[in-house]
Amino acid sequence: MKKKAVVILSGGLDSSTLAYYLANEGYDLICVSFNYGQRHIKELASAKYIADSLNSPHHVIDLSFMREFLQNSSLVNQDLNNPKEEYARENMLITVVPNRNTMMLSLAWTIACANEASLVAFGPHKGDNYVYADCREEYFEAMNDSLRLGTIDSRLEELTLSAPFIQMTKIDIVNIGNKLKVPFEKTWSCYDGQDLHCGTCGTCRQRKEAFTAANVNDLTVYKE
Fold first, then answer.
1. What is the number of helices (H) and of strands (E) in the chain?
2. Distance between CA 144 and CA 179 in Å, rounded?
3. Which tens digits make up the pLDDT trace of 134-162?
4. H-helix or E-strand containing 8?
5. HSE-CB of 8 using CA atoms within 13 angstroms
6. Is the pLDDT assigned to residue 87 strictly greater than 70?
């Protein structure tokens, strides 16, 4: 019997590549996305596309009631401007959603326990860890220990948290995804969540730079 993996699938480049990577490793996937009130909700449509392309079930968990508590983040509050500068710590801190990965991982872990999965996977990479506290290796290790300790009697023995890209760069992820034929043009990165990628926000800049550095053709349509 094939092993199961619960994948936190945002619809972005990293998590979409992660889903293709795990499918290539032979896992049956359960793809889980979250609506926490983010303004770039368009990414959920991208997540569905990626899950469908892998013939995997896709579940959207509604946490939109959290919107009122997350107004200090430009990812949620429409009145705050998303940074249009380089993807750097001082520019990107306004995009932080406190405890976001912990909320998501806890629920994904519960789903994994209920479905006898052996893996819960999410896609932080090396470029995230100096901006987002819940993308750091020490967080990942502590969270894995906590989740496993809290479910000793209600999970598969081997169930573990996986973050295979946590020591990789965005360039590495683009290279992996290119080899796996990830439909990058169907993924969504832009924090603004309009009809097209803006091309100027921090995450659009990081996306474009990664394709250029990896020498991979970027089929994304950018507004600028």
1. 7, 5
2. 29
3. 889 999 999 999 999 999 999 999 999 99
4. strand 4-8
5. 22
6. no
In sequence order, the β-bridge partners of residue 6 are 30, 120
Domains and CATH numbers, the chain: 4-214 (3.40.50.620)
Instruction: Give 197's DSSP letter.
Output: B
The arithmetic mean of pLDDT across residues 202-209, rounded, is 91
Handedness of CA 190, 47, 130, 67 (dihedral sign): positive
**C-alpha dihedral, 181 to 130 to 198 to 122, nearest 10°:** 40
Distance CA 116, CA 55 (A): 19
pLDDT in the model for residue 91: 64
Total Cβ atoms within 10 A of residue 130: 12
Residue 191's pLDDT is 86
For 137, the token pair is 């290796």
Residue 196 pLDDT class (50, 70, 90 cuts):
very high
Which region holds residue 82: left if phi is over 0, alpha if psi is between -120 and 50, else beta?
Answer: beta
